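Table S2 (continued). Query chain:
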Amino acid sequence: MSYRHGALDTTDEDSERVDGIMFAESDHGDCYCFDLAPKGTEPPIAMYNHDGSFYEPYTKNFVAFVRRISE
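Corresponding output:
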């Protein structure tokens, strides 16, 4: 499955803006993606919710992601 911009069939406007590159998957089937849409040096992390077929913001960067999953 591709998580790149326009690859997902979603009507959620926030999800349509995400240009995701998946790097991890949860035990529940949700995927974590670098969001390449915002321009900057560190892409934010978005979680793709497989049940609802939409993205939600997860952390502001990869370091924050590692900290969050380590807690």
